Every structure is written in C-alpha cells, then in structure tokens.
Amino acid sequence: MSHLVRYSRYLSRFKTPHFPSSQHSTFPFSTTTEDYNKPSRPDPPPIRVALTESAGRGVFSTRKIGAGDLIHTAKPILAHPSLSTINTVCYFCLKNLTSTEFHGKGVAFCSQECKENAKVFYEVETTADWLAFDDYCRNKGLKYPLLVKRLACMVISGAASAESLDILQPSNLSHEMVLEMEEGYGLLKSGFAMANISDELMAFLTKEWYNSVLARIRINAFRIELAVGSYEDLLSSAAACIEAEAAVGNAVYVLPSLYNHDCDPNAHIVWIDNADAQLKALCDVEEDEELRICYIDASMDHDARQSFLLQGFGFKCNCLRCLSGD
Ligand SMILES: [Zn+2]
Ligand SMILES: [Zn+2]
C-alpha cells in the first residue's frame, strides 16, 4: 500500500456534489453546510491563505477554533474510484452503493443527482473504449492516470478548463517517470481518437499537458477512505481490508491542497460517506495560527516519515516533532 499519497485514516460526509462549470473556473472552496432556502448564508470559513516563512503558501486561522470543530468543507475538482471499487462505489461521488443504484454503462451511481452530475465527463467517456487504458492502469498499479482521463473528458465536454489544476504545486518528474508516462498518454489520446473526438477538441491534449496534470495530481491527490458509520459497516470494512485496499478512490481539491504538512498536525481531513472532504481541528487553535495536516501515516517513526516525505513530496520535514527526534 502506497504512503506516497496524502493520507487519512479518518472519514467524512457528502452533500450536493457538483463539479465547477468551465464558465466560472473558480473552484468550490465550499462551505456548503446550509441549504439555499435558509434565511442566512453560512459564515465564511475561519481561514485565510497566506505566505508562510518557509513553506510557500499556507492556511491560517482567522479566529480561535475549538478542538473537533469543522473548519470548512471542500468538494473535489476531480474524484475517481479505485479500479478495485469501481463496482461497489458511486462512479461520481465514491459513496458506497446500496440497493438503489442508478446504472450507467457498466458503472453505477448512488443517486439520480450523481448520475446527472457525472454527465460532465461520462457522456464523453462512454463514446470511447477504455479497455486498453484501464488494463494499463490495472497492470501497472496506477490510479492517477484515471484522474487525468476524467479531467480530459471534462475538458472535451466543455465542463472544465484544461488549466483547472494549474493553481496546484507540481511535483518534480524524473526522466524515468516522464518516459513511463508516455504509454498512458498514448493510450488516452488513441482512446479519444478512436471515438472520433475532433482534433480541435483534443488540441489541449499534448504530452506536456498530460505530464503537467499528472505531476500535480501526484502530490495533491488525497486517498479517500470512508468513515465507518455503523457496526455492520465496521464488520464489512474489516473484511474488505483483508481483501482489498481500504481506499474507495482518489480525489483532488484546491483549498485542502494549500494546507502544509506537520507530523503532529492541528487539523485533519476526513470523509464521512463520499468524496466531499471535511477539514477539522484536532486541537484548540489560536487566531493566526497556521493550520497543518499530516500528509502521511503519522504513526510511522521519524526516519520512515522523513523518507516518505522526501520521496513522495520532495521536502525534508522540519516540524517540531521531527526536530525533537520523535
Ligand atoms: Zn454518488
Ligand atoms: Zn515532521
């Protein structure tokens, strides 16, 4: 199981999922905990994004936040189930499916709403045959090219801009990694070409675009593990853990990606039953304090953490816990 993805062992809950439309390429830094028909708008989240002294951008509190408080919610820009969970979770929001699924072609949605929302990628996706592309991902154990494919479908359908992820920090790609990506790029491009998507609509789909999107997804994607809601869920998830990876999929967000890392974090990201993220305070936070999450499994020892952070995210951690040698 890879630790080279943003990691969380906790989980949280979803409301009205939707992707941003291309006309408004702002992202849902959403605080959607209220219905529109309620008289008052929700308060803005108690955070601001500002430069830190050493780690570039970071997220800071604008007031005291209590331990356990919800700081804000965030909807994914992109989410995709793991190939191993594709038949057991919603193809749009990654919620575990019950008996009331709404079927698409070979996949299922948890609700009519998700089926509607999925049109931004699904209508384009289903015009092509992705067998070779999916086999490539499955055989090589790759999950991020699936997110690139989904974004490409959204761009072709006009639902997202090709520059959607440019706001995120890219990882450095080695020459070997770039060579490895060529096959995925070729399969993605030929999938669309065989589906007769026009050259004009595919103009954005260059090797540079593919690599740049993958470089961003590589260090910004979160591995989603859903919260266990009941005793029955606990039993079935215990069984599922033995059989397969616990993650239901992977997703990319904007605001949660701006949180810096700490091995002893004061905030964490959780998912209750789908890909909607909740950022919560782990302890009392003072006004103007930087909010940080842990990108990796915090239970690892000092050397393992340093090694994963360097390999996966390209930095040496100088948090207080690491400096203390713990
Ligand atoms: Zn759904
Ligand atoms: Zn550290």
TrEMBL record:
InterPro entries: H3K4_H4K5_MeTrfase, SET_dom, SET_dom_sf. One of its GO terms (cellular component) is nucleus. Signal peptide: none annotated. PROSITE patterns: SET. It comes from Populus deltoides. Residues 45-296 form the SET domain. This is SET domain-containing protein. It holds the Pfam family SET. Residues 20-34 have a biased composition (Polar residues). Residues 20-45 are annotated as: Disordered.
